[in-house]
User: Fold this.
Amino acid sequence: MISIRIQQLTKRFGSVTALHHLNLEIAPGELFFLLGPSGCGKTTLLRSMAGFYIPEEGKIFFGDEDVTRLAPHKRNTGMMFQSYALWPHMSVAENVAFGLEERKVAKDEIKRRVGEALESVRMGQYAERRPNQLSGGQQQRVALARALVIRPRCLLLDEPLSNLDAKLRLEMRTEIRRVCKEFKLTTVYVTHDQKEALSVSDRMAILESGHILQVGSPREVYKRPHRKTVANFIGETDFIPGKLLGREGDKIWVETSVGRFQGIMGDPLANVATGATVTVSIRPECWTITQAPEAQNNIRGAIGDSVYLGEIGQYDFVSNGTTLKMVERNPRYVGTRAASGELFASVEPEDVVVLVD
Ligand code: ATP
Assistant:
């Protein structure tokens, strides 16, 4: 197991700066995701780790070794990309053996390791098939076996599931996590699929325009986004403009057009003065709709449009001219809220995230 350290990494393509002085530390054995909108620099960062790009500035360390200028084949990384890129004229076993033959590993050893790698991705019985006799998910398992068989120092995955249908993606998500943990591999995984990142990662970095906006566990990033872009990118949320009334440690009070809220600061280090303009972020599932007002963090309004989805109901809650999205999960009220006159909605202070950008 190795750590991966990125120090002050800058990568330019002509006049485009794809990465701006990035710093990042990935722990040994960690399953780490790079997430962000198209063009944010995820692939550039991953390819720099793989050695396909040499950065203009900064360093990359695998453990204590500076690999910044090391050729890709000397880095001993296992890679898996969107397209499976299996050789069509070779059997599954031959495809997996390829990397070992290149490294001049002895024949017996190759046979044993290919067998082990295929077993670990549950493809042992397909060793003699050709790639075109396999499903997309099975081909992706073979690609994973091929990445693992060389006993890489780390695994680098670029949108590995994007060619699969929704059901297979779900299955392979769990499979990739199982294999990474079983092999205790430090893994960097690029995706723009937030559900994939939330469900599989130990930690993630959210990138935008070549900068890292936030690093944290799925829960930290989802529950406490530091910035509007992060809150917006991960999950759904409503932004309500407001004015800061006061702050006491982690507690913060904000006045908005729909009411007064007690909340928490998204970025605990943000420096913001009383009276400053801020934005409140509240996720739809955090509201509780009630008939009578609650003691605090309570707004008054009425249901506008609603969508019945069986297990949940989605509502537009209109309060003082502002429409907020809310989700009802109590089976008693799902689908019964429409046009039911004046209602109230309340939210816990920890779910009222105050943002300054
Ligand atoms: P996507 O999700 O669309 O794959 P990404 O987050 O992986 O996007 P990158 O491919 O890393 O983004 O691109 C980052 C920036 O660098 C973009 O502005 C892109 O246009 C630019 N870029 C990437 N590769 C090259 C290249 N080979 N030549 C010129 N510009 C490039």
